[in-house]
Amino acid sequence: MTVHVDQDDHLVTITIDRERKLNALDYPTLDTLLAVLDRLEADESVRAVVLTGAGHRAFSAGADIPSLARSIADGTECALREIVRRRQGLTRRIEEFPKPVIVAVNGLAYGGGCEIVEAAPLAIAAAHATFAKPEITLGFPPPFGGSQRLPRHAGRKRGLEMILTGDPIPAARAAELGLVNRVVPADELMDAARDLAARIAGHAPTAVAACLRAVTRGVNLPIDEGLAVEAACFAATVPTEGVRAGLRRFLDRRD
Questions:
Q1: CA dihedral defined by 8, 37, 14, 125, rounded to 10 degrees?
Q2: Among residues 82, 115, 176, 241, which one is catalytic?
Q3: Which of 155, 216, 234, 250 has its CA 20 to 30 A from that of 168?
Q4: CATH for 3-201, options being 3.90.950.20, 3.90.226.10, 3.30.360.10, 3.40.50.1170
Q5: Residue range 209-224, pLDDT digits in tens
């Protein structure tokens, strides 16, 4: 198996385990990740997910290049089906997942690995982690959604600098650009990711899902449309036990 899943109470850790290949994402690994996310979404005991890579060298080097080359050799339709749809499907699934996905970047995050970081709602990087968009060296633009998400994080000019040069950036620069929430020493990475997950998991799952949905759907809309998304997400929580319990706790403390 190239994907390992470990659950500790409400937290699940997913590890991409192709360490000898720098955790590159071949098709079986992509499909397994999607199947795992489907299962975790349906499991009410799961409230947060940490996604990381095996070892200390790489979170993920991105696409498995031999697999990608075979798809391209089979023509445009095959390349669109196997590369773009599959990979954009994974990043979209992570971006829209109704439970928080926290990426723990334990090494290099290149290509599709960087695009997973961009898609995830939260990310923490080890101090030695590096980030890059090397697709241009292979002759094509990012196919995991990175040409769209990176400029939304970093701004058009800073995003284009990474996309057009392929040059890597260190973890500290990734934090400055908004790709990761913070940078920690390597030996503190998983503890920091799990601590963040625990602080979120303590809140009502319905509230967490509504916050994720409101931000993800509204962030790139005009403000009036975004406010309508916010109103709909708020309305969905009104009849929930999470609201009733939260209000009870507040009123009980005040009394």
A1: -110
A2: 115
A3: 216
A4: 3.90.226.10
A5: 999 999 999 998 999 9
